[in-house]
Amino acid sequence: MARLSDxxxxxxxxxxxxxxxxxxLNIFTLEDLICHYPRGYEDRTKLVHVCELExxxxxxxxxxxxxxxxxxxxxxxxxxxxxxVADTTGRLSLTFFNSRYAAETLQYGxxxxxxxxxxxxxxxxxxxxxxxxAPDANAVTTRRVLPVYPLxxxxxxxxxxxxxxxxxxxxxxPAEILPPDIRERYxxxxxxxxxxxxxxxxxxxxxxxxxxxxxxxxxxxxxxGLSLMRAARAEKKTAPYRDLDLQPFYDALPFTLTGAQxxxxxxxxxxxxxxxxxxxxxxxxxxxxxxxxxxxxxxAAVKNGRxxxxxxxxxxxxxxxxxxxxxxxxxxxxxxGLLTGSMTPxxxxxxxxxxxxxxxxxxxxxxxxxxxxxxxxxxGLVITDEQHRFGVAQRSRLSAKxxxxxxxxxxxxxxxxxxALLMYGDLxxxxxxxxxxxRETVDTFLVGESYRARINAFIRxxxxxxxxCFVVCPAVEENDALDVKSxxxxxxxxxxxxxxxxxxxxxxGQMKGPEKEAVMGAxxxxxxxxxxxxxVIEVGVDVPNATLMVIEDADRFGLSQLHQLxxxxxxxxxxxxxILTTHNRNPDTVQRLKALCKxxxxxxxxxxxxxxxxxxxxxxxxxxxxPAFRVADLSFDMELLKQAQQASxxxxxQEGTADTPEANALRTRVAALFTRAEGTMx
Length: 682
What we know:
The protein is α/β, with parallel strands linked by helices. Among the domains are: 46-143, CATH 2.40.50.140; 247-432, Rossmann fold (3-Layer(aba) Sandwich), CATH 3.40.50; 443-599, Rossmann fold (3-Layer(aba) Sandwich), CATH 3.40.50.300. 38% of the residues lie in helices and 18% in strands. It has 22 helices and 23 strands. The strands form four sheets. A seven-stranded parallel sheet has the order 13-14-12-15-16-11-17, with helices on both faces. The protein has a six-stranded parallel sheet with strand order 18-23-22-19-21-20, with helices on both faces. Strands 3-5-6-8-7 form a five-stranded mixed barrel. Strand 5 (78-87) and strand 6 form a beta hairpin.
C-alpha cells in the first residue's frame, strides 16, 4: 500500500512531465490528488431512446451500428468518419473528427452505449464526437455519474480521473476525524465512503452526500482549530489589570461615548482583568468611534504600568492618530510618541530611547514599530488599525516585543459576524453598531452618463462653498478591454477641460509610498480642490472638509467597497453626498447599486453584498486570513457552517483531550490547516 504523503509519480502513467502538469493544480502527493475534488458532475446514468434525444442537451442512449463506418480524408489534418446508428424508435447520423478509434472499433450490427449532444434541426439532426462503450464493458464514460475536474493546459479530465482512481486503489483515504455520534446526529457519511463517493458516486444523491460530508469536515476542522487555539490561550496567564477605573478618561472627553462604544470598552476591561491575554476585534462602520475605544484600552494599560502600541497602515493615518491621542492624553499626563519610516535617524533614535526607558507610554507608528531596533520597557497592549492591511507575521512581530501582551485589532470593514469569525480566527468580536450623535448620513444617488453636466456643476458648487471633492475611478490607466474611466486620464480631462480654474490632484496605487503620502497630505491640508484617485483612498486620513464623493463606473466595485469609499466623506459638520455613476443597465446591477442608496448601515450592506456576490468581495487577497477551503463555499453553505461550529464546540468540551483515533487525526488535520493557511492564525 502506498501512503498519502507519497508523490504522485508512484502512480502508473505519471512520470516527471505529467507530474509537472499536476503541479500546476497544486497536486504533488496522493493526498493532494484525492483532495482534488470535482467542480461538478455529468449524470450519464439515464438511458433514453433515440426519439427522446433533445437538441443541445447531452444524453446517453443505446443503439446499433447500421453500416460499416466510412472515413473520408477532407484535407491535411482532417479525417471525417461517419456512421448510422439506430434503435427501435429512430435513426441517427454520427460524425467523428480524426477518430481512428471510432473507425476501427465500431462494428456493423453491434450495439453500443453512446453519450453526446444532439445538434441540428428537424431536417438534419446529428451528433458529433460522442463517446461510446460496449454495453458489457466497464462503465467508464457512459452509464455513470462522471466527475468533472478543474483542469490545466495539457491535462484532460480523463487523465485526472484515471490518476484519482489509481490513488484510491493504492492507498487509504484521509483518516476519519468525525466521531460516530456526530456523524449520526448530522447525517454525515463516514470518511472512507465520502472520499470514494466524491470521485465515483453511484448516483447524484450519493455525490451530494459526499459533498455534504466534505464541506462539514472542512468547517469542523477549522472551527475545532479555533476552539483549540482559544483553549490554549485560556491556559496562558498574565497579571490581571487591577486598576480599571476609567472615569478620568471619560471626564477628559469633550463628548459622551455611544452605548456601543461603552459596551466594547466593557468587553475590553473584562479581558484585561481576566488574567489571560486579550485577543479581541473591534469592528465598526466608518465613523463609529473605534479610535476612542482603542484610546480607552491604551489608558487602562498605562494606568496599570504598561505601554501601549498602535500600528497604522500608512504614515498619514499614524500621524493623525498621534495628533488626536496626543491631544486627548496630554491633560492626563500620558506621553504619546510617533515612530514612522520617514523620520530622520536622529528622530527615530530619540523615540526608541524613550520607548525603551518607558518615558513614552503610548507609541503610534507604522511598520517602524516592528523593526529590530525598536524595544519597549513594558509593552502590555498591541493595537492594530485597519486590521486587514496587516499580515499575521507583522502583528506577531509587534506582539513579540512584550510578554504575551493583550491584542486589540480594529477594522472599519463591516462584516457579517460569521465571516468575521472566519476571517479573524479566534478573536473575540465587539461590534460598534451605532454612530455618534450629530453625525449626518451621506445622501447617495445613482445616475447615468446623461447627468455628467449636473455632476460637474455640483462639484463646482461644493468647491465654491469652500469644500473638497473625491472622484474615484476603477482603473489607473486607460484599458479598452474594460471600457471604464481611468484615474490618470480623468484627472487630466478634469484639469484641462472641465475645471481649469480648480486644483485637481491625482492619487493611485502605482505611485511610490512617499509620493502617495505627499499627495494625500496636501489634500488633507486643503491644497487641492478635487482628488481623482483609485481605491487607494479606501483606507486613509480623515478629511473633514471633503463633502462629495463621485464614484465613476460604480458597477465595477462591490457594495462593501463602495460603502468604504463613501465613508471618506461625511466626517465634518457640513452635509455630504455620494454620487454613483454607471452606464450598465443590467437590472441586477442597478438593483445592487440602489441598495447602497437606501441605507448607510454598513452591516446591512455587508449582508446584502454577501448574498449577491459571496465572500470574495470582502477579502481581496489571501492575506485577509480566510482559510483556503477546497469544497466549502461560504456563499451557500452557511447552514452547514453553523452545524459544524456547534458540533466542534461540543466535541472540544467533551473530547478535546481524548486519546482516540478520531481525536488524534483531527489534531493532525488542524495543525496542517493552520500551517497551510497561516493567515488564519492569530
